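User: I'm writing a tutorial on reading structure tokens. Could you give me a worked example: one chain, its sequence, then its tokens, then a sentence or two explaining what the tokens reveal?
Assistant: Sure. Here is the example chain.
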Amino acid sequence: MANTYTQIHIHAVFAVKYRDALIDNSFKQRLYQYIAAILQNNHHKMLSIGGIEDHIHILFGLNPSESIANILLKIKRDSSLWINKNHLTKRHFQWQNGYAAFSISKSAIDRVVKYIINQETHHQKTSFRDETLKILRSLEIEYNIQFIFSNLE
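And here are its predicted structure tokens:
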């Protein structure tokens, strides 16, 4: 085959360090636009972004020339620098180490987009902890709860 053809959709989730509620509505949409630009500038396809004060969800089409770990590192590093450079929070902003990333089938994209867009409503009923555990269990991903919900970073 002379060319490369892929369709890789990733649902990524990561939290503010210590899960502090630092993502304020005053800059949340600008943050999302900034993250979308990072993805697009690195030849990935932005599909959806949303979250609440302490974490975000991103659905994107992955360019296979870059690893998930590398693009998420860029997003977290560059967006933290942007938030701090523009003094958007009262104290130093950092993302928590690590992330969750799941492959999404094309048939699930609309459902995941709706889920991401409705994060604020969703989290009025479900905590971030419960949400994370539900996703990990439904996908049968092994985990150590000590590392998922530790505030010792």
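What the tokens reveal: The chain has six helices and four strands. The mean pLDDT is 92.
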